[in-house]
Amino acid sequence: MIKKMSADKLYKFFIYLCLSIFAISIIVPLGWSILAAFKHKSEFYGNPWALPKGMYLENFRKAFVDAHMGEYFINSIVVTALALIILLVVAIPAAYVLSRFEFKSKRVLDTLFSAGLFINVNYIVVPIFLLVLDGEKAIKQIFSLPATMTLFLDSRIVLSLIYASTALPFTIYLLTSYLKSLPKAYEEAAYIDGCTYLKTLTNVIIPMARPSIITVILFNFLAFWNEYIIALTLLPNKSKTLPLGLINLMQVQKTATDYGAMYAGLVIVMIPTIILYILVQKKLTEGMTIGGMKE
């Protein structure tokens, strides 16, 4: 018995030690970056671990105004929010149909969506770019528009559509797996009360699947908010998002040796994701650990 208790304590100690090391490896760089955002550029030539001598908020003004991070921040919010709305409007009904109904092409659709999980979006950026160019050329020819006019490039709407479409396989797969675990008794009661399929989806299924939907929103928010390759390809001239603006800011500030403004831009990018994670942390855990009530 004593040996068993000692083994259990040793196992728990090992687990907590690994978790503590993992937490420290995340918290230390994060905290250092936040503190560095408040330092004057002269402070970076001394002890890098020293606390800032004051709250040098000029760094945030330089990043937000001079480096146009404020404009890029708004662009990222618009693109991410629009992409999430499009994604949820398409993915939730699709997952509902695939998880609750039987029809001839169901297996084919399941296979196609599952195959989409193995496609890395970064590998198909060039084909996506060529499709966008071909579509723009076709529209210009049909409506006799000027060749210099841009329709699909530098468009936040087009970028949002591509983000949403590339995230569909993962989102539908996750939602379908969750909806399959939900009991059908509630739907049957709704049908008896005269609810249509759409009303059942909005009033019964979506509230029950809220933890899974919040999980999907968080994962895709992080993916859209931090995405760089597609945004760099489809936004070559204007309407840049935060990751593109952050790269430009880092290049400029490294040349100017103004590291405070560079870290301030980094904090501007990180803050929304940290706040969102804090707000939905409980629901995120439920969505990943609870599969719903079994029939």
Overall geometry comes to flat
CATH superfamily: MetI-like
| Cα radius of gyration in angstroms | 24 Å
The counted number of beta strands is 0
Q: What is the N-to-C order of secondary-structure elements (H for helix, E for strand)?
A: HHHHHHHHHHHH
Would you tell me the structural class of the helices and strands? mainly alpha
Helicity, as a percent range: over 70%
Report the biggest beta sheet as strand number plus sense, adding barrel if it closes: none
Q: What percentage of amino acids are in beta strands? A: under 5%
CATH class: Mainly Alpha
Whole-Å distance between the termini? 40 Å
Multimerization status: single chain
The CATH topology, please?
MetI-like fold
Total of helices: 12
Mean pLDDT: 85
Q: Which architecture would the CATH scheme give at its second level?
A: Orthogonal Bundle
Show unreliable segments: 291-295
Total separate domains:
1
Family: Belongs to the binding-protein-dependent transport system permease family.
Domain ABC transmembrane type-1: 73-280
Keywords: Cell membrane, Membrane, Transmembrane, Transmembrane helix, Transport
Pfam family, one: BPD_transp_1
Structure description:
Residues 73-280 form the ABC transmembrane type-1 domain. The chain crosses the membrane at residues 13-38, 72-99, 111-133, 153-175, 213-235, 260-280. It comes from Clostridium cavendishii DSM 21758. The model is unreliable at 291-295 (pLDDT under 50). It is flat and about 70 Å long. It has helices at 2-36, 58-66, 69-100, 106-116, 125-143, 156-180, 185-192, 197-208, 210-226, 229-234, 242-256, 259-289. The chain has one domain: MetI-like (MetI-like fold), CATH 1.10.3720.10. The chain is built from twelve helices and no strands. Helices cover 75% and strands 0% of the residues. It is mainly α.
